[in-house]
Amino acid sequence: MKALVSNRSIVTRFVNLVCSKSVGGQGGQVKDVPIPTISPDDILVKVKAVALNPTDFKHLDAISPPHSIIGCDYAGVVEQVGSAVKSGWKPGDRVAGAVHGGLFPNKGAFAEYLVVDSDLAWRIPDEMSDTDATTYGVSAVTAMLTLNVRHGLPFVQGDDVALGDEAIFIYAGATSAGLFHIQLAKAAGYRVVTTASPRSFDLVKAYGASAVFNYKSATVAADVIKAYPKISKAVDCFSEGKSTSVCAEVLRNNGGTVITLLPNGKSSVPGVAYDMVVAYTVFGRPFQWLPPVGPKFETRPADREALVRFYKVLPTITHVLKPIPTVKEKEGFEGIFDGLNKLRAGAVAGGKLVVAFPA
């Protein structure tokens, strides 16, 4: 099969990491590699479409060791089912989800075939397109992990839940992760207070935000506190620049925890703590970035159990947790490279970049 495989040296990766740049070419190439062999508990998926995330180019630029297949979010068709699979999968079933792409030579979504843990995938409803299904990958999984596991919000079951009095602050609501956080929090009965640029105010409200504030305002934290003085939970879906400190200020009155998606040190606001989430912990395996010197991440069985639960119920709650807007790139690997370059340049707006594979 053909796959997008990383090829950067450790020196180039380290330079890119330290300088936050991309030097030394595009960092990967499309190669012919063996179709991966499945274990008894796996399914083999023929990939039909993928979605792109910033983590994909970050892996290409700095994290991925050579010969790793890139890509996390996918939609496709079951090609083969392992002998011990009890999840009811059969060849021809439509399937989607996320994998830990960018770290292994036999697992990554930017490939013609993909090995998936049979219980870490979800069944695409008949009425949903492959491109829409790809959006329920890393962004949706991160929202589930931060809200249901770390912040302890109730899991969504699809029932109508009336909004309560408690509010949660979601920074960067118009991002892919932000839109899923908004929907999940609202479905759990929380009033969602978020930030966005004025051009995205209508978008975040359409996805369930109760209130939205301009993130560029110098008084954004004070404005939120004035309107919602009792907030004690926050998620920073941007996690760069001043975003995390704004979240901490919003929680100043009550204390609480800000969940971040990138490292942000320690909070300077008394009673406010930072807790970083890495979505890859949902796959149930320990891993390390830039070994032997990079950070290690231990196995978190509860995170994996949460993903199993989430993907099992997801086909029944897509009327509550809607797919987010998509922007289609060219088909195939050319579209993937073009899309990753746009993400590197910060030139993506209006939706999740998705790429279909030729039939």
In short:
The chain is of the alpha/beta class and 359 residues long.
Question: What would you say this structure looks like, in words?
Answer:
The longest helix is centred in the middle third of the chain and has 13 residues. Helix 1 packs across helix 2, helix 4 crosses helix 5 and helix 7 packs parallel to helix 8. The mean pLDDT is 94. The strands form four sheets. Strands 3, 4, 5, 6, 7, 16 and 17 form a seven-stranded mixed sheet that branches. 27% of the residues lie in helices and 23% in strands. It contains ten helices and 17 strands. The protein is of the alpha/beta class and 359 residues long.
Secondary-structure blueprint of this entry?
Layout: E1 2-6, H1 10-19, E2 28-32, E3 42-51, H2 54-63, E4 73-81, E5 94-98, E6 113-117, E7 122-123, H3 130-134, H4 138-150, E8 167-171, H5 176-187, E9 191-196, H6 201-206, E10 211-214, H7 220-227, E11 233-236, H8 243-250, E12 256-260, E13 272-276, E14 287-288, E15 296-297, H9 301-313, E16 326-328, H10 332-344, E17 352-356
Portion of residues within helices: 25-40%
Residue stretches low in confidence (pLDDT < 50, at least 5 long) are none
Taking the alpha carbons of the first and last residues, their distance comes to 14 Å
Please summarize the sheet with the most strands.
Answer: 7 strands, mixed
Rg, Cα atoms, Å: 20 Å
Mean pLDDT over all positions: 94
Number of strands: 17
Residue share in β-strands: 15-25%
Secondary-structure element order, N to C: EHEEHEEEEHHEHEHEHEHEEEEHEHE
Class by helix and strand content? alpha/beta
Count helical runs: 10
Q: Sum up the overall morphology in one term.
A: globular
